[in-house]
Amino acid sequence: MPEPDTAHQTDLALLLAAAERAGEIARQYWRQDPVAWEKDAGAGPVSEADLAVNAFLEDNLRGTRPDYGWLSEESEADPSRLDAEFCFIIDPIDGTRAFIDGQQGFSHSLAIAQGERIVAAVVHLPVMGLTYAAQADGPATLNGAPIGPSDAAIAGASVLTYRAATEPQHWVGGIAPPFRREFRPSLAWRLCLASEGRFDAALSLRAAWEWDIAAGALIAERAGAAVSDIHGAAMRFNSPRALVPGLVVAGPRLHAELLAALATGPVSPHHRTE
């Protein structure tokens, strides 16, 4: 049996190859008016491209690692994943609404958990030619080059979050901190952008689905960012509900300042305002 580092490297190579092929499939549908519809219970849109990418990934990844569990936004729940030592955590297309609209900022988010911890991760934006990757005990990279977060303080920081997160009731004293709000359609990409310092933080007060953030969380951690839920606790993955109570991802100084300023718990992941 290979040593753990070797196994993680092999898993990362598997994810990188699968993400590249997923991008090729998605581009066949992008700006081609793909069939799309809304999921039940306000869970957002899905398209034929999401399902095609998901089918490829499940066949390819599970075919290669049949003993790994499977958790994907576009697959039926499989409780057996909770008993597996390793589990794939997949969002075939993160930013589906942007994809349907013909925007470039959608991604494929692929991760592998060992127990509750992510050990290999890839976030790939095929149209933009961006591939973020990390493995346990290794660096985080963008297109092969190491990345790291900024050292910004909260005043004037650029924070990737949705509009409602700046409402006063979420903040101590009823006043949002003096940061500059930005937005990108893919949550996985937002974590990566904070990881590389192009933006100073990624913040969500909403409970987040694991498939949206698993890969980005490891990439941010290995880049040197501080990564937690909105209570400051470490994120745990492959959980029964597949939810994390919000997220704060930033350089260590800004991360601490954001946590200190927060005054609210997470709201439902289905509550979508942007």
From TrEMBL:
InterPro entries: Inositol_monophosphatase-like, Inositol_monophosphatase_CS. SUPFAM superfamilies: Carbohydrate phosphatase. Transmembrane segments: none annotated. Keywords: Magnesium, Metal-binding, Plasmid. Belongs to the inositol monophosphatase superfamily. This is 3'(2'),5'-bisphosphate nucleotidase CysQ.
